[in-house]
Design goal:
Strand 5, helix 8 and strand 6 form a beta-alpha-beta unit. This protein starts with 7 loop residues before the first helix and ends with a helix. It has 13 helices and 14 strands. The chain is α/β, with parallel strands linked by helices and 399 residues long. It folds into two domains: 146 residues, Aspartate Aminotransferase, domain 1 (Alpha-Beta Complex), CATH 3.90.1150; 221 residues, Type I PLP-dependent aspartate aminotransferase-like (Major domain) (Aspartate Aminotransferase, domain 2), CATH 3.40.640.10. The strands form four sheets. Strands 2-8-7-6-5-3-4 form a seven-stranded mixed beta sheet, with helices on both faces. Strands 9-14-13 form a three-stranded antiparallel beta sheet.
Length: 399
């Protein structure tokens, strides 16, 4: 007799479709197929040399013992200085916790503030893990949908209607994954005015794409004085410094939340890799020209991709103002066929493009937007041109 040992919480957890599609792409590549993989949200640049040098020095200096649970004081100070310089936000180092990537930071916060049955507002499209992290915290996701016509941004009226006495937090992301949308100062102000009326609602502000912004200075909800004391800023080094594999994220938050997160992290993971922390100090304190060079490159790639996809019939694209994704509405192709392929969903379309055009993408259903598909343009110009020409040709075969 077999014994079912897997917990109900894990059975209820969905797998990441981003990772699933990346795996399918890798399997095809390993079989010899020339697949262009546009699934993962990862800069294709290498970590800048001065940051790698700091890590090498840390190894040679034997920085190999347990670090403090909440992060090295020098890194927390560097983060506090960054928040002051870049965002005009005043935080002391004891209001910061360093974790194993921004995803870890998000998971920590949700575990620490959400009780069973409490609601967390999540604008859709949303990053794939938001829903599952709320479910793991025994919270109830409340989805607020926005479409291509509003550049995937929710309105103040939608936010107001979604708030109830059970609302614990809103999980807010700008610049956005998967859409690349960036809320303007005026749009943020309108949302802030709603949140000001509901002091029981916390704001979890995921700003991991802060440095990849094509429309001016980044702004977040913590920059409104009326909201700062109930806003938890989530950020890290992965996207802006091409350091995805170093796994360094952080929160800046009110002291009671920082204390709770440190308590939880002390039991689950303790402090994160000392070498990666040393490299991250250099990321924040060193030359920032590398960040600007990558931002400019992503901006050029965005324009390159938009120039190609404008000629694809049925692609409805909201111009992304940040990050490195396009998120076209592809519902025009639902119901169409090509031989053995019938397209009834965004997943069907992604599988068709993978198998016929050998271009890997992620279905919008993974992000709460079933009419769309996400393509990352974190790839070389040549690969992007080839990939979207393949997509264009494959879609032309659907009748």
């Amino acid at each position: 007799m077999s014994i079912d040992v897997i917990s109900n919480r894990i059975k209820a957890l969905s797998e990441s479709q981003t990772i699933q599609m990346n795996q399918k792409s890798r399997e095809l590549q390993e079989s010899g197929v020339d697949v262009i993989n546009l699934t993962l949200g990862e800069p294709d640049f290498n970590t800048p040399e001065h940051i790698k040098d700091a890590a090498i020095k840390a190894v040679n200096d034997n920085l190999s013992h347990y670090p403090p649970v909440a992060g090295f004081p020098a890194l927390k100070k560097a983060i506090a200085d960054k928040l002051e310089k870049d965002n005009g936000l005043s935080y002391s180092p004891n209001q910061i916790v360093v974790s194993g990537g921004a995803k870890h930071s998000l998971a920590n916060v949700l575990q620490c503030i959400v009780n069973a049955g409490e609601e967390v507002i999540i604008p859709a499209p949303y990053w794939v893990s938001y829903i599952e992290l709320v479910k793991l915290a025994e919270g109830t996701p409340v989805i607020v949908e926005a479409g291509v016509d509003t550049k995937f941004k929710i309105t103040p009226e939608q936010l107001e209607e979604s708030i109830t006495p059970k609302t614990k937090a809103i999980l807010f992301n700008s610049p956005s994954n998967p859409t690349g949308s960036v809320y303007s100062q005026e749009e943020l102000k309108a949302l802030a005015e709603v949140l000001e009326k509901h002091p029981h609602v916390y704001i979890i502000s995921d700003e991991i794409y802060e440095k990849i912004n094509f429309v001016g200075k980044h702004m977040g909800l913590a920059e409104f004085d009326s909201l700062k004391d109930r806003t938890i800023v989530i950020n890290g080094v992965s996207k802006g410094y091409a350091m995805t594999g170093w796994r360094i994220g952080y929160i800046a938050a009110p002291a009671d939340i920082v204390k709770a997160v440190t308590k939880l992290q002390g039991q689950f993971t303790s402090g994160v890799c000392a070498i990666a922390q040393a490299a991250s100090i250099q990321a924040f304190e060193g030359d920032q020209q590398c960040v600007e060079e990558m931002r400019v490159a992503f901006n050029k790639r965005r324009d390159l991709v938009l120039d190609i996809v404008k000629d694809i019939p049925g692609f409805r694209v909201a111009v992304p103002d940040g990050a490195f994704y396009i998120f076209p509405d592809v519902s025009h192709y639902f119901g169409k066929k090509n031989g053995k392929y019938t397209i009834d969903s965004s997943m069907d379309l992604c599988m068709y493009l993978l198998e016929d055009a050998h271009v890997a993408s992620v279905p919008g259903s993974a992000f709460g937007s079933s009419d769309c598909v996400r393509f990352s343009y974190a790839a070389s110009d040549d690969k992007l041109v080839e990939a979207f020409n393949r997509v264009k040709d494959a879609l032309a075969q659907l009748k």
